């Protein structure tokens, strides 16, 4: 009887100890966030967008909105490389564009071009912005004539600025313009054991990732060296069939929807202008598109969002999923590194 009593006491103490440890477990934290401020030469605006567009047009410039938020590592990286560092891109922006900054989480009132008065946050929802940064460009008639979702390196961003400044949007769309630019071959396609050599994508039953690269892709080396080598990314990718395609190829492939086409025609049809651009399918349907730079944490969470079918619980936007997912990880004591 004494032995049994002692076992009960020991078990109770052990459970009490575990409960106490869990109760006082330290929460995780987000690391790698990057503080930044808009360059001092950004336009000081009353946030009447129609008025800002008119003022820019009177000065022979185009108007641009840079959407970001405090702590965004992609925003800090792009602001430094394309707006603050002394280079051709930053000089070009200063000369030919009026730029304002809006906070995707902000509360300042903005008068939109249609007369609606909304907060920065509500405007973000109105425009269905899901990336930070997002750049929106206007013509003199207050129409949006180009939009860039997510970080772009300085060279690729300069090509987009040229498209706007030369008013090439009057003749063609952005993707057509970018495809017409003579580009240097700077990237040699890298092999990866995760990639499958497939041309018929209609019979794949697993989650499917289709990666589009080309020989002029500046970020592709980084993608292979920093993203595909990350253990957590590899773990999430293990749930997928992964196919890599040359975005300039005219070879015949069959899409997940059963359509015969080529990689080149496919990216032109869906206007995928980022490399490496990635389409994520599940249950035979496109569920998410990665068309901007993502560091490992955000990248692997997009993969999880699709493979885990979290789009059922969060049908409106991946960002709703990401918010809850980060809170879940932090409460469980996991540190989240959002940096490169």
Contiguous low-pLDDT stretches (5 residues minimum) are: 1-23
Strand content is 15-25%
Using only CA atoms, what is the Rg? Answer: 24 Å
Secondary-structure-based class equals alpha/beta
CATH superfamily of the largest domain: Glutaredoxin
CATH class placement of the largest domain = Alpha Beta
Count up the domains.
2
Mean pLDDT: 92
Total strand segments: 14
Count of helical stretches: 12
Shape: globular
Order of helices and strands: HEHEHHEEEHEEHHEHHEEEHEEHHE
What strand order characterises the main sheet? 3-2-6-7
CATH topology category name of the largest domain: Glutaredoxin
Task: Characterise the protein shown here.
The protein is α/β, with parallel strands linked by helices. The protein has 2 domains: about 30-180, Glutaredoxin (3-Layer(aba) Sandwich); about 210-335, Glutaredoxin. About 40% of the residues lie in helices and about 20% in strands. Helix 4 (about 90-95) packs parallel to helix 6 (about 155-165) and helix 9 (about 230-235) packs parallel to helix 11 (about 295-305). The longest helix is centred in the N-terminal third of the chain and has 22 residues, at about 1-25. The relative contact order is 0.12.
